[in-house]
Structures are given as C-alpha cells and as structure tokens.
C-alpha cells in the first residue's frame, strides 16, 4: 500500500487584510480522492486550502492559506510519500504589493499588478525521486486536450486529469485521463466519488503496482 | 414585531470562469443576527453570498453570488421590510473586463483594472422610506471611529456597527455601536451571538419601538 499526498481546495492571495483573490474550488474532488484512496487501503495526507467540505477522518489533514504555504507544506510532506495528486486549485496570481491596511475606496478605478505564484504540482513534478509519481489536474475552458498535454509535460506529471469548468462546486465530474505520453487513457464521468475511484484504479494499476 | 432584512457573507467578482476577487467573510455574524432577531419574535429575510454557515431554519434565505445581485435582491426585499442590517461584506471592486475563457498564464505580470461595485447599504440608506431604518457595519483596520462615522453619514444609516479585522472568520466579535449623530452608544464584546443580541436590543429600543 502507498502513502499518497493530495492537495485540495483553493488558496487565497490577499490584497489587504480583507480582500483576496482566489479560485472557485470546493475541495469536494480532493475529499472524494482521499476517500477512494483510503478505501483501497492507502495512507492519505491532505494539504488543503480553506474549504467547507469535511475530509475523511482517517486522512491526515494539514490546513494552509496561501499558494506559497501549500507549496512548502506539500513539498515537505511529499518526501515521505510515494506519490502526489494535485487536486487543489491554488490561486496562481498574487498582488505584487500587499497592503497592511484596508485599501480605502476613492470612487476611482484601482489598478492591481499581479504576478504568478509558484506552481505547486510543477514543483513536485520537477523534484520527484525516480520512485515517486505525480498526478496533475488541468481545468481548462478551451482546447482542453491540447492544454492538458502541455501542462503534463511542463509539470513532469505521470498522469493528467483534464476537466472543465462544469466541475467547479458541482457534485458531479467528467474527466479525461491522459498518460505521460499524452495518450487518452480513459474518460470517466459520474459523482465525484465515482470519478475518484476511477482515477485511483488507474493510479493503482499503472503507478503503484 | 418587525420584518428585518439581513445581508450576510461575501460576494464574488469573477475575472474569468475560475478566478475571482472576494472579501473574507464567513456569514457567522449574519447568522447570529438572524438568530437574535428571530428570538425577539421578528421575521427575518437573509440575502447571503456563498458561505459555509447554516442560517436558522426559521429565516427566509435568498442566495446571491455577485454584489450587483445582492443589491438587486436586497433592494427588492427591502420594500416589504421595516428595516435592514447590512452585515454582508460585498466585494467592493470588480474587474473592468470579465474574460469568458480562463486567462492563460504567460509567465509575465498581469495588470488588472478594477472599478468599484455599487454600495448595497448606501443604496438601501438612500432609498429608505421615512418609516424604514438601516443599520450598517463598518470594518476598518485604522481610524475606526472616524471612518465609521463617515460611512454612517455617507450611507444614511440610523446606526453603525464598527468592528475590526479580528472579527473575520472568528467566533467572537467586539463592536462599537454609533448612533445617527455619530455618538458612541455602546461597546459590546463576546461571542457573535452575544454581540448580535446586544445589537438587536439597541435596534429594538431605538428603531423598532
């Protein structure tokens, strides 16, 4: 049996003490993956941004807030894991400058300069040992297959799960599984738990055994 | 007994189909106010952004997503109410342009032009009938009392609740109640339900009876 790291939920990048930029992500897919992995007898560590969902009691859950925190905790925990599934939707832009006091409204437009945050899955993919594996998620609104393959290569993933915006905040999901060579392996749809079981089955067969 | 409109929780302003700007707000203060008002025998309508909290079953709850939606629903419901409490933290900036497809990362900074959203409480305050009242919330990180008074006047509120960033996502709160003349009426601290009961007591004594 394997020890699996699952990143889940959104992260937040604050502009000031009250306003922040984030991604729509409920953590439901991460919770479903944790349940599916536990059901197969694996050990699970979830690194999660702020969510309303409850993770399975048998999973170890570590809460984080920002993308940088998610990266640091995931990278640290990954050392003791056999593989990682990046189901989180980390906020990928952050304000160049974070204000310590609440920005006051002036009636005028506000120009916000954003820079990219570090990529959590790409970092795990780059740094993985030869005995470790990384499964990424790609959520795209257009050119899904092409963009998922580009991300797969760029992030050094062993498997990529491609889904669309319908997945967000939904109880259902519909995904394509793409292997390290960019080949479409399988299409899975159903409840997020059904989809999670399908993904874990492929991980079990191709990456763990 | 009165019919009270309570706005609660955050709203979201999307940049594209997955990323959005929002305010840190759990909806707990709104839920506590709804409970306190119901306990005094009032009727309650909650207009709420996306939250994890559960509102009292006896309250009518209307879900909204954006600030514009909150404004429209709150304004419509307010017609049938005696007063409104603006406990929501509506997102007060929105992107000048909303992309229909997910913005792709390029490795370069992203400049975001934000404009102010309409002010929900100020709109209710401006349009209230002479027999209606509006209670606002001001969350400030500095010059709390001064800024709360400025907001009180600008938003035509009958009462202003001033609190600090410690209130966010917390089970506790500490507030100053300021009357329409800018005078500090009371300081209340404790659990959010204790604070809500204190606020409703003042509303009952000064605005309803």
Automatic annotation (TrEMBL), chains A, B:
<dbReference type="GO" id="GO:0003824">
    <property type="term" value="F:catalytic activity"/>
</dbReference>
<feature type="domain" description="DNA/pantothenate metabolism flavoprotein C-terminal">
    <location>
        <begin position="3"/>
        <end position="204"/>
    </location>
</feature>
<dbReference type="GO" id="GO:0015937">
    <property type="term" value="P:coenzyme A biosynthetic process"/>
</dbReference>
<dbReference type="InterPro" id="IPR007085">
    <property type="entry name" value="DNA/pantothenate-metab_flavo_C"/>
</dbReference>
<protein>
    <submittedName>
        <fullName>Coenzyme A biosynthesis bifunctional protein CoaBC</fullName>
    </submittedName>
</protein>
<dbReference type="InterPro" id="IPR035929">
    <property type="entry name" value="CoaB-like_sf"/>
</dbReference>
<dbReference type="Pfam" id="PF04127">
    <property type="entry name" value="DFP"/>
</dbReference>
